[in-house]
Amino acid sequence: MLKAPHRKVSLVLMAIAVYYLYLAFQLPSFMNSIIDSDTLPKVLGVLLIVLSVILFFMPDTETPEQKEKRNIPKNDVFMLIGTFLMILVYIFFLEILGFILVSIIFIFLCSLFLGYKKHATNAIVAVLFPVTLYLIFTQLLGISLPSGILPI
Fold it and tell me: What is the value of pTM for the model shown?
């Protein structure tokens, strides 16, 4: 019954969803709002459980071509692990250095790591995208993002 890989994945996703829902129910609620701060996390947790159940009961007919697609080349595994490590470094330094600075460094280095060769375009995007997002969030939406060491 658990031979098919999608069934194993669905069980892992269900366990993650249950833990996520447990954490979502720990969020504080506010009296004055119709849609509370915990509404979206709860909806996403339930949605993940529903989709995991659907994945579990999907038929396990797999062609040899689909089986071959599941094999990930070693170079791609290296890229996935490297990107994951860069994301962890990004999360670690987000509060310390601030959203803009860490995002610029992350976008530029991650693009280089993944093989993007146009350095000028990469630098322009790496600067404009985080600055634009920062301005949208702070000025238009009134949401504060970590400023870090920059005097913003």
Answer: 0.65
